Amino acid sequence: MTRPDSKWQSHPSPVHSGEMKQWAEVLRELRSLLTRDPRTKPDLKAWTSDANSLTRRIRSFPAVISNLVDEVAWHYLADADIRVKDSEYAEMQRAEIEKWLHQSEQRLAGG
Question: pTM of the prediction?
Fold first, then answer.
């Protein structure tokens, strides 16, 4: 698996304020999804719909933004059904996305 910070090393940070806003939006929405990560099958439908919407939006952004999204985030967006079924996998994946989000938010804030 790619290190959570590898995209920052291989791709320049967004340089235009519009791109910075898009990147901040991606991180906010991922954080929101994490706070309401589905734990049961009934929670899955709405969460998956929101995750799919974010995925489409990320793919519509310029490459400078979409290329910053690490495979940790892509797997997180795609694997909700697995997390509901497998609590060990869920715990591991939540920890990975939390770490990646924290690092990305810190870099966005200039820290």
Answer: 0.83
CA distance 15 to 31: 22
Residues 66 and 59 sit within 8 Å (Cβ to Cβ): yes
CB 40 within 8 A of CB 84: yes
SS (H, E, C) the chain: CCCCCHHHHHCCCCCCHHHHHHHHHHHHHHHHHHHCCCCCHHHHHHHHHHHHHHHHHHHHCCHHHHCCCCHHHHHHHHCHHHHHHCHHHHHHHHHHHHHHHHHHHHHHCCC
pLDDT tens digits for range 6-54: 444 444 454 578 888 999 999 999 999 999 999 999 999 999 999 999 9
